[in-house]
Amino acid sequence: MISFIEQIGAFFRRPFEKALGELRLFLQVIYWIFVGPFVRKPFSWRSTANQMAFSGVHSVIIVFFVALFTGIVLAMQSAYQLVQFGVKSLVATLVAVSMARELGPVFTALVVAGRVGSAITAEISSMKVNEQIEALDTMAINPVRFLAVPRFLGLLVMMPCLTILADVMGMLGGFIIGYFSLKINPGLYMNMTVKFLLLKDIYTGLFKSMIFGVIIAIVGCYEGLNASGGAEGVGRSTTVSVVSSFILIILADCLLTGIFYFLNI
Amino acid sequence: MAKTVIKVENLIKTFGNRRVLDGINLEVYEGETFVIMGGSGCGKSTLLRHLIGAIKPDSGEVRIKDKDITQLDTHGMDEIKKRFGMLFQSSALLDSLSVEENVSLPLKEHTKLAPDIIKIMVKMKLGLVGLRGFENHMPSELSGGMKKRVGLARAIAMDPDIVFYDEPSAGLDPVVTAVIDKLMIDLSKKLLITSVVVTHDMNSVFRIADRIAMLHKGKILQIGTKEEIKNSTNPIVQQFIAGDVEGPIQFLTKGDDYLEHLTQ
Ligand SMILES: Nc1ncnc2c1ncn2[C@@H]1O[C@H](COP(=O)(O)OP(=O)(O)O)[C@@H](O)[C@H]1O
Ligand SMILES: [Mg+2]
């Protein structure tokens, strides 16, 4: 019995320790953004801009296609039912709202976690196992300020931008099906999109995407900074980083959607 | 008598249930080259990490210029670190930065010097290690010995008082090792730097050392000048210097033990 409880304890201890570590890293990042520049040292804007460009360049093409095809699939899938009720023009509304509130932010986050999050962890963990993080430390350069803050800010800014792209591409995908297959009048399609897509649909989606950006950056940096065990360790931490980001993104999405739903936002 | 810059007292560090450092006492004098030698895994790097404040001991003191660094907070420690340079076993250059950016990094981070002044300083440091003209190379384009030299240029970028070297000759051929050794001697004489070197390369040790400490099983066996260590009567020290298989340091199991071990 005791050993059973111990086993359960051991099973939950690692994720729990990880979550604590990630929370601590998040607080350190916040410190270096808001307090550090005034009492210690500022972070580098240049390196932040580089990270923005890096995250954008790395994911823009994939986000583009993923969102376009998601929009197409969504339109076909919903048309299948809506046509039976004789309200096929509602396809436009459904695609727009689903993309903006849910699929745009989530799919973008999954793509970015796979492309940028993994790259962040791979880079930082290889620095870690090659003594480079320790070298920064001995040069009195704080690794959180130097490495984590630019990546954090880069993703925080780029995620909403990429999500807007995804929203637009998804709606374009829906439009392709609506116009060519369902023969919905283009003007009507636009109308149905604009009329029922509320501003709050867009900004709740963008808010979500920022939270996802925070998750990807923090998990990516945390796994990198805590890597160990040579080249093999780099591979391991990169995999763990992507898997944890995926899980946390889905969990956070569920939580946020719940909050928005029950608070009627 | 020379001034003491580093004083270690009763330093103890345990990892898990393994006591890696078991009551270390030593002193390093201003301007000298102090070598810590010992077998692989005996705790040399761990001792060095204590000297630079990267890890805290279980007990004991590390005094740098009469300040106990084991008691300092991160901010106080940062101020001390700016007076250090460190050359890592793997050079530890940042892969994403060019040679120039690597060497200028501490200057950009910790000084308010104008960019063109920094550029000139980087050129000077690279000149000192014989790598003029390599400013725009990336670390991945350099050989192991060149990386070490860039690492050295970075270590002395801030004109430190003390430079620490972790196995500077690891992975280098004898000629390149001799070059690095010569650089270390030059730098300590020209720039009046105190050097603490960790190594198990005996050729290097006798080329560069003023004084030597022999670390074995977490304890300092003997500290002395080059001559004192060369003429040591301690059998372990003698075996280590000569690189003998037979002696008090045992790696191969003796025949009878071995049979017993197998049949148990
Ligand atoms: N952070 C650590 N956690 C656990 N064990 C460690 C750690 N650092 C070093 N050790 C152990 O301490 C011993 C000495 O390591 P080290 O100081 O690197 O030896 P050396 O540099 O003399 O080869 C080794 O057995 C190593 O496994
Ligand atoms: Mg070592």
Can you offer a commentary on this structure?
The complex is a heterodimer of chains A (265) and B (264). Chain A has 265 residues and is mainly α. Chain A has one domain. Chain A is 87% helix and 0% strand. Chain A is built from nine helices and no strands. The radius of gyration of chain A is 21 Å and the shape is elongated. The model of chain A has no long low-confidence stretch (mean pLDDT 91). In chain B, helix 4 packs across helix 5 (144-155). Chain B is of the alpha/beta class and 264 residues long. Chain B has ten helices and ten strands. Chain B is globular. Chain A binds chain B through residues 40-41, 123, 126-127, 130-132, 134-141, and chain B through 52, 54, 75, 77-79, 81-82, 84, 86, 88-90, 92-96, 105-106, 109-110, 154. The complex binds adenosine-5'-diphosphate and magnesium ion. Adenosine-5'-diphosphate is lined by residues 15, 20, 38, 40-46 of chain B. The site of magnesium ion (MG) has 5 residues of chain B, from helix 1.
